[in-house]
Amino acid sequence: MDVNIGISNQDRKRSADALSVLLAETYTLYLKTHGYHWNVEGPHFQQLHALFMEQYTEMWTAVDELAERIRALGFPAPSSYSEMAKLSSVPEEIGRPDWKQMVVNLAEGHHHIAATARKTLRVAEEVEDDATSDVVTPRITIHEKTAWMLRATAK
User: Fold this and answer.
1) How far apart are CA 103 and CA 153, in angstroms?
2) Nearest to 135 by CA among 58, 70, 50, 56
3) Shortest CA distance to 36 belongs to which of 99, 109, 108, 81?
4) If both were cysteines, with which of 73, 87, 98, 123 could 18 make a disulfide (CB 3.0 to 4.6 Å apart)?
5) Residues 35, 53: Cα–Cα separation, whole Å
6) Exposed, middle or buried by CB within 10 Å (0-12, 13-18, 19+), for 146?
7) Does position 93 have pLDDT exceeding 90, yes or no?
8) Residue 30 buriedness (CB in 10 A; 0-12 / 13-18 / 19+)
9) pLDDT for residue 124 is more than 90
10) How many whole angstroms separate alpha carbon 86 and alpha carbon 100?
């Protein structure tokens, strides 16, 4: 069945492609954050263990919303590790950084995703995809606020 929502197929594809990158980067940072939750050690263990859980839980909800928006546009959402890795420029974690480096790495990841979300928003605005704009705009706010909190924690 055709997707007839008032946005051309080409423009829906542009939105879906931008959303797919945002989804992949969010998923990659979700995995990193969850791994840090499992492996954090040190004097701030309890605080960071809880903070990382709050952050990965929020991103878990976000990836579902992003994927569902891609599907609503009529395209398949990336759904494998290899697809996510190919689309994402958020580096995977190799090794076990100390707690402070974990916090710095996550702050950098949230900065990166805020920028990606902003690019995705520009695409959605160009193709007049208001629903995608509505999904993406709060992502910018959330990632910028999370990055700020992590920067403050790393001091």
Assistant:
1) 7
2) 70
3) 99
4) 123
5) 10
6) buried
7) no
8) buried
9) yes
10) 28
Tens-place pLDDT, residues 50-92: 999 999 999 999 999 999 999 999 999 999 999 999 999 998 8
The token duo for 9 is 């197929």
The residue among 123, 113, 110 whose CA lies nearest residue 11 is 123
DSSP letter string over 55-120? HHHHHHHHHHHHHHHHHHTTSPPP-SHHHHHHH--SPPP-S---HHHHHHHHHHHHHHHHHHHHHH
In this structure, are residues 74 and 12 in contact, taking their beta carbons and an 8 Å threshold? yes
Q: Where are the alpha helices (DSSP H) in 127-154?
A: 130-154
Q: What is the pLDDT of residues 4-52, one digit of tens each?
A: 899 999 999 999 999 999 999 999 999 999 999 999 999 999 999 999 9
